[in-house]
Structures are given as structure tokens and as C-alpha cells.
Amino acid sequence: MTLATTVHERGITTLTLDSPANRNALSAGLVGELTEALVRCAADTAVRAVVLTHTGTTFCAGADLTAPPEPAAFVALMRAIVALPKPVVARVTGHVRAGGLGLLGACDISAAGPDATFALTESRLGLAPAVISLPLLPRLDPRAATRYYLTGERFDAAEAARIGLITLAAGPEEVDKALEPVLDGLRRASPQGLKASKELVTATVLKSFDSHAEDLIARSAALFASDDAREGMTAFLERRDPPWVL
């Protein structure tokens, strides 16, 4: 079953997360398909930029707890987005949770509408936003990162733009309108100019991957194997509170 679809128009390749049955959760299959699609985009001279979007009311619900990817595979996907020699633009009209925020953090430009909500819910499951810190912490407001990492609170697109998670918060049915000048600008830029410019603005993020990926992959694996995480994920799947909720 195809979990991500690809459409190409005037130099822009759109990759659509298309697994609504699990709210576009990051399964091993979806991570693999996206990684392969990015490899193709990197090699295709007809691709000037990539748009990452979704079907349904959820952009990405985070890790698929029933068929999760290996942490190293998810890290490789996020790094592939950051290191792609072409801009990656996120178009978000739905909810984003946990690992889905890692995808957004890896993208170069992003726009979200008023129906989008965001939350780093890992702490409520006995986990932590470990590997997604690689693209997020270099870009997020530090105080906001502390708050939302610790509390798991939900916030809207305006707050996501304020703290640096996304680029643009658009009005109702205006996400595509907000992205029109962005995509027009990318179409007017030379491939060499885009590549060289992206290298400048992603250098700090790539250093984060190169310096901390191995440690955070190990930390993520240890957390997922813990008793707290097993209880947290079981409670989530059973739609009940874990025992630590006061």
C-alpha cells in the first residue's frame, strides 16, 4: 500500500502523506517511502523545490506506536530533508503531534492554517522529544521549547509561528495563498543559488545532527524500552490516563 503520493508541477514536487487510517503516523513504511522519494527529488533536475503536505485532518500524529520506525531511520529522514539541495516547504492544514513536529522542524519554510494544532506529547507517554530535538532546538525559541517539551500543551499556528516552529500562520482557507509568493520565489531562483543559500541557513541544524544524533538515538531507544514508556503507550492506545496523572 502506498503511504505517500507524488505530484510534479512547474518545478515543484508535492509529497503527500496519505495514510489517514492512522492519521499519517510515522510508521516504518511511511518513513521509508518518504526517504526514497527525497532521494529521487535530489537526483531529478526538473525538481526545483519540494512541498510536503497531507490528506485528512492530521498532518502527522507522531510515531506509529503499532509499527514504529527505527529511531535511526527517522533521523535519516529528517536529515535528508535538511540536507536536500533543494528547499522543502511544509503545507499544514491539520494537527501535528510529537514526531510530526520533527518533520516541520526539518523543513525550510512552512505555512499552517487555523485548523492546525501542535503538541509535543512525549513527556505524557514517559518519553522525551529526543531525536526530533536535532532540527527543533536550533530553531525554536528556548523558553517556548522548555515549556512545550515539559508540559505537552497544545498550541495553535500563530504560536507556532511566534516560537519559530513554522514560518507563516495563514487565515481560513488561505494556506495556499500564503505559499504563492514563496513558491513563485523558488521558481525564480537558480538551482545553484537555492543550493548555496540553503547550505548557509541549514549549517547549524546539520551540525546538530552530526554532533548529537548518535547520543539521541540511543536515548530514544532506551526510553522506548522503559517501563514508563510501555505503560504510557498502553494507556494511550487504551484511551485511559496512565497512573502518574494526578
Automatic annotation (TrEMBL):
Enumerate the InterPro entries for this protein.
ClpP/crotonase-like_dom_sf (IPR029045), Enoyl-CoA_hydra/iso (IPR001753), Enoyl-CoA_hydra_C (IPR014748), Enoyl-CoA_Hydratase/Isomerase (IPR051683)
Q: Which domain of life is it from?
A: Bacteria
Classification via CDD domains: crotonase-like (cd06558)
Q: What PANTHER family does its record include?
A: ENOYL-COA HYDRATASE (PTHR42964), POLYKETIDE BIOSYNTHESIS ENOYL-COA HYDRATASE PKSH-RELATED (PTHR42964:SF1)
Stated family: Belongs to the enoyl-CoA hydratase/isomerase family.
This chain belongs to the protein called Enoyl-CoA hydratase family protein
Q: What organism does the UniProt record list as the source?
A: Streptomyces silvae
